[in-house]
Amino acid sequence: MDINYFLFMIGKYNNILSYIDSIIDEFEETREFTEEYLRNKDKSFLRIFSPEVNKDFFVERKKHILHLKNLCNQYIQNLCNHEFETDTIDITPDKSHTISYCKFCQMSQPGF
Ligand SMILES: [Zn+2]
Fold it and tell me: Would you say residue 38 has pLDDT above 90?
């Protein structure tokens, strides 16, 4: 089994996670807006428009996607015949940092 499937899936999961984070942020905003709107009004309204119910759904989905992404990383760890390359990154004009990563799966070399 080659690692390309898992690398592709991690890319997709990263996209999904970014969408989910945006959705969670939107629900958070609707909660703040609803609380503001309900100030000194009938709180039973909140049961209908409770953003928490919807937000929790996406928080749970996010946990599941993170789990799947973690599984993909484990498969890559086991399947990739790592070949590490080193590279120097300039942090400032007179300061640089050397990193080592696998040219196939981009994993950084442990302890480098
Ligand atoms: Zn690798």
Answer: no
The arithmetic mean of pLDDT across residues 7-26, rounded, is: 96
Q: Are strands 95-102 and 84-92 parallel, antiparallel or unpaired?
A: antiparallel
Q: Is 97 exposed, middle or buried (0-12, 13-18, 19+ CB in 10 A)?
A: exposed
Residue range 41-79, pLDDT digits in tens: 877 777 777 767 778 899 999 999 999 999 999 999 999
Count H helices and E strands in the chain, helices first: 3, 2
What whole-number distance in Å separates Cα of residue 50 and Cα of residue 83? 51
Kindly give the distance from the C-alpha atom of residue 91 to the centroid of ligand 1, in angstroms, as a whole number: 25
Rounded mean pLDDT, 87-93 = 89
**C-beta of residue 112 within 8 angstroms of C-beta of residue 100:** yes
- Domain ranges, ordered by start, for the chain: 4-79, 82-112
Measure 4 CA to ligand 1 centroid, in angstroms: 11
Cα of 89 from ligand 1 centre, angstroms: 20
